[in-house]
């Protein structure tokens, strides 16, 4: 399976490492900033790196030829329709909430702010609306009393994301397709951004 990884920062690097250990071919890494640690890790591993022309949008020419699947890992860029069409199976991303709950950039912070006793993570199909594509995999964890968003992310949600991504990749290798369950909009939350 040929993967184009779009991402950044520590979670991008840990995803890159998980993919390398998981028997897939990472044909290109796409980053918004050439100085990002994901770009450095990819170059060190001999993987081609492309820097987005627009940090808010990934376009088809930035996706490696013959890509089977686009994976996003800590990317805040939208993957354009043309880019998704360039990959045989489209694209998936990890969101640190039980989608459709807490869509958006501050999902873990909203989990803590709302006092949710349970958190979770979702592998979802990339779509026009941010965090609104079909669910490929989902799992949950408890939130510890007094835990900060960062503590919850590091203890439970980042490792959960890597596990779920690996599970979906294994499924795709066997079935040559991705699981998909439509999100139930009646459970969507909309919260103002935290500032």
From TrEMBL:
Gene Ontology MF annotations: methionyl-tRNA formyltransferase activity
Gene3D superfamilies: 3.40.50.12230
Record-linked SUPFAM superfamilies: Formyltransferase (SSF53328)
A Pfam family it matches: Formyl_trans_N
GO terms for cellular component: cytosol
Keywords (A to Z) from UniProt: Transferase
Residue span, Formyl transferase N-terminal domain: 63-157
PANTHER family assigned to the protein according to its UniProt record, in alphabetical order: METHIONYL-TRNA FORMYLTRANSFERASE, METHIONYL-TRNA FORMYLTRANSFERASE, MITOCHONDRIAL
Protein name per UniProt: Methionyl-tRNA formyltransferase
Organism name: Bradyrhizobium frederickii
């Amino acid at each position: 399976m040929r993967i184009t990884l779009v991402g950044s920062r520590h979670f991008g690097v840990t995803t890159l490492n998980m993919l390398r250990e998981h028997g897939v071919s990472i044909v290109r890494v796409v980053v918004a900033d050439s100085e990002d640690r994901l770009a450095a890790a990819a170059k060190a591993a001999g993987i081609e790196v492309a820097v987005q022309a627009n940090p808010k949008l990934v376009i088809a020419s930035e996706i490696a030829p013959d890509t089977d699947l686009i994976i996003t890992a800590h990317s805040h860029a939208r993957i354009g329709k043309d880019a998704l069409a360039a990959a045989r199976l489209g694209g998936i991303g990890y969101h640190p909430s039980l989608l459709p709950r807490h869509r958006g950039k501050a999902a873990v912070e909203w989990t803590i702010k709302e006092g949710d006793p349970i958190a979770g993570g979702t592998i979802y199909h990339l779509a026009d609306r941010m965090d609104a594509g079909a669910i490929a995999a989902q799992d949950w964890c408890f939130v510890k009393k007094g835990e900060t968003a960062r503590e919850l992310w590091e203890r439970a949600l980042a490792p959960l994301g890597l596990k779920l991504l690996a599970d979906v990749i294994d499924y795709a290798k066997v079935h040559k397709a991705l699981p998909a369950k439509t999100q139930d909009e009646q459970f969507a939350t909309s919260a103002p951004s935290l500032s």
